[in-house]
Specification:
CATH class of the largest domain: Mainly Alpha
Oligomer: single chain
Strand order of the largest sheet: 1-2-3
CATH architecture of the largest domain: Up-down Bundle
Radius of gyration: 26 Å
């Protein structure tokens, strides 16, 4: 089985784990949130439900990214994962603002003290979500899946929101038991805090995904090994230019090499072909475009 197929199967399985896990968590938290009169837990349930949509988007993006190059997309479909990541980030921002709006409204309505069962539901959510984060993060890092990494941080944001909900629900329950009126608003405050966390994380992840989608070129330190491989090819006298563009989970290389100006076109082409073959052996390189320059003591401008 090719490495691309293995990557696709692993990432697809992780997306399905997220979909099924989030559906279960969203249902549990929503039902208990309603039964326990907890706005924070209901907000957390909405967050988990948004994770379901996010995982579906990731699944679609990963599947599209796996498609081979075609006439309209000669460099492949790798950026589909970046697009998927941007969609997930936008979804998170919308969810965050919706939760914040509901939290503000709750301050102008009669306060209901949540029941203690809400605490148990949140603790269960924290454990499950942290496990899902670690699983997806490690897998996304291993297979360089931007969409899966964003989805993993989506789970981590759920952990943070659940911790905030736990503190708020706990404060509200304690306020009800001790008859401390201001503590009763802890549940609503936790809901607002969850919203801020969601929007902040979504903004950060969305900004990074947009950056990667705009033909981001790898920095000098990230291409040193690839340049060394090209420079070691017999006949290459100098590397005039080397650009490695991120295209989703893989890299497209544009390289200009200098060769002896006295050799034939056929010989120059053979050197360029060898450079391409050597670079394609690098794990992350998907395609290489080689331009041949005549060698000169003066570097080309």
């Amino acid at each position: 089985m090719e490495e691309t197929d293995i990557r696709y199967r692993k990432v697809r399985f992780a997306a399905w784990v997220g979909i099924i896990g989030n559906i279960i968590l969203a249902i549990i938290k929503a039902v208990i949130g309603i039964m326990a009169n907890s706005r924070a837990l209901i907000a957390d349930a909405v967050h988990s439900a948004s994770d379901v949509v996010g995982s579906v988007v990731v699944l679609i993006g990963v599947r599209a990214a796996k498609m081979p190059p075609d006439e309209d997309h000669p460099y492949g479909h790798g950026k589909a994962e970046s697009v998927a990541a941007i969609i997930v980030a936008v979804l998170l921002i919308i969810v965050g603002f919706e939760i914040a709006l509901n939290a503000v409204k709750s301050f102008f309505e009669p306060v209901q003290v949540p029941k203690i069962m809400a605490i148990y539901a949140v603790l269960f959510s924290i454990i499950v979500k942290e496990l899902m984060f670690r699983y997806k993060y490690n897998l996304g890092k291993k297979y360089k899946s931007e969409a899966l990494m964003v989805d993993a941080w989506h789970h981590r944001s759920d952990v943070f929101s659940s911790v905030a909900a736990l503190i708020g629900i706990g404060a509200a329950v304690l306020g009800g038991m001790l008859n401390i009126s201001w503590l009763v608003y802890g549940d609503a405050l936790a809901s607002a805090f969850v919203a801020v966390l969601i929007v902040k994380m979504a903004w950060s992840l969305g900004k990074q995904s947009i950056h990667n989608a705009l033909d981001h070129v790898l920095h000098e330190e990230d291409t040193m090994e690839m340049k060394k491989v090209a420079a070691e090819v017999e006949g290459v006298l100098n590397i005039d230019e080397f650009l490695a563009r991120e295209h989703g989970h893989y890299v497209i290389v544009d390289i200009k090499i200098a060769v002896n100006p006295e050799i034939t076109v056929r010989e120059g082409h053979a050197i360029g072909k060898k450079v391409k073959e050597r670079l394609l052996e690098e794990k992350q390189v998907q395609d290489v475009l080689v331009h041949i320059n005549p060698y000169s003591e003066k570097r080309p401008t």
